[in-house]
Design goal:
single chain; alpha/beta; Spore Coat Polysaccharide Biosynthesis Protein SpsA, Chain A; 2 domains; two-stranded antiparallel ribbon; 14 helices
Length: 402
């Protein structure tokens, strides 16, 4: 204890800051590993011939999704779930989305096009499309899937079985049916810029997700879901008030999860990277528009969104190089500066390597960690500026106030 007190007295503000960065990065790596370790996986399944399966409505909201809807419907139509209908809600698209859906419907009677009505005042686009899809559906269970998400064979059966059987995956409570079930899909990142930026942003979000608390009924205020793949039992959906109850929310998936859990319904979040794959953004422009929208909405949920958090992240990518460049002036203490710099850099690389492994990004991209962090900070600042200046955010040609 005396040694620690003496060390504290000898520390300058600069050395205390460096020590704080080292401890902070150690904590981030440990926390991130703990979070990913708490996320159990669901794997594809074939239907059990001895079971009766409830009717399921797979609902896809689609606005100007001509480039992605074919792959989405190919995956959906490839499911061998026994009692399935597939509804695509064309949300006033200005491209050939509707025509492509009609072509699928002509050869697969399970596929149906729902022509969406004009967006009413007070509604965000996606909740409105999903609301219309539910009204046109007949399923006992509802599965909401984004148009840029491709389902792997056996995905639907696996998740329905998991929800009905009370899948746990973790020893955090008794097995009981789960009426709201969501998965984190795998990410398709085929280009260099996606492999640099997306792990940086997604890694921060993954770190901020207390998965064990999300999956625990003891923490009703902590809930999150992934709108790329969200399953809910219809009777629970109706008791919740459906999407009409959160009609104006841009982050409708998170708000849906918070409402469900707050009303006492069981919620599960699982790793579904073997069940489905999503390519969120195909161009840098779409990435900019999408993340500035999502990050400003998530500012109430993600701790890194605070100004001090942004400063901390910038410090982790700037401080090591400052320490290395000034170490020669430190005399006999130069080794401490170099050691601290190497530790901060190594911990950042370790954090990024773990994220890359989870996202199945080649290991060599770990060296781009500083650029991923910088991209996250820039996107976060841009999203907050849009809100604070009153310009709001845009998505799919629609503008939403901050």
């Amino acid at each position: 204890m005396n040694a620690l007190m003496r060390l504290a007295r000898e520390m300058t503000p600069a050395s205390a800051t460096v020590a704080g960065l080292v401890v902070g990065e150690l904590s981030r790596v440990a926390w991130g590993l703990a979070q990913r370790g708490g996320l159990a996986s669901v794997h594809p399944k074939r239907p059990d011939p001895n079971r009766t399966y409830p009717r399921l409505s797979l609902i896809v909201p689609a606005r100007n999704e001509g480039l992605t809807i074919d792959a989405c419907l190919t995956g959906a139509a490839g499911q061998d779930y026994p009692d399935l209908e597939i509804l695509v809600v064309d949300d006033c698209s200005q491209d050939d989305t509707a025509a492509r859906v009609r072509a699928f419907a002509a050869v697969d009677p399970r596929v149906r096009l729902v022509s969406g009505a004009t967006l009413p005042s007070g509604w965000a686009g996606k909740p409105w499309a999903l609301h219309q899809g539910v009204h046109a559906s007949t399923g006992e269970w509802l599965l909401f899937v984004d148009a840029d998400t491709n389902l792997h064979q056996g995905a639907v059966t696996a998740v329905v079985d998991a929800a009905r059987d009370g899948w746990i995956g973790l020893n955090d409570g008794p097995a009981e049916p789960t009426p709201v079930f969501s998965i984190l899909t795998g990410q398709s990142l085929p280009t260099v810029w996606e492999r640099i930026i997306q792990p940086g942003v997604l890694g921060m979000i993954m770190e901020s997700m207390p998965v064990r608390l999300v999956n625990s009924a003891l923490w009703p205020g902590i809930a999150i879901a992934n709108g790329q793949f969200l399953l809910v039992r219809r009777d629970v959906y109706e008791v919740m008030g459906g999407y009409e109850a959160i009609r104006g929310e841009i982050a409708e998936d998170v708000m849906f999860a918070r409402r469900a859990k707050g009303m006492g319904f069981r919620l599960r979040l699982a790793d579904g990277s073997d069940l489905a794959t999503t390519r969120m953004y195909t161009t840098p422009g779409a990435l900019w528009e999408g993340w500035t929208k999502n990050l400003h909405v998530g500012s109430r949920l993600i701790p890194y969104l605070a100004v001090p958090g942004m400063g901390y992240l910038l410090a982790t990518i700037i401080a090591p190089w400052v320490l290395l460049s000034t170490a020669s002036r430190m005399g006999s203490q130069a080794w401490r500066s170099r050691l601290a710099a190497v530790m901060i850099l190594a911990l950042g690389l370790a954090q990024r390597a773990a994220v890359n492994r989870a996202l199945r990004v080649p290991a060599r991209y770990a060296i781009t960690q500083p650029f991923g962090v910088l991209a996250f900070v820039i996107l976060m600042i841009a999203s907050q500026l849009k809100v604070r200046t009153g310009t709001g955010v845009t998505w799919k040609g629609r503008r939403y106030a901050g």
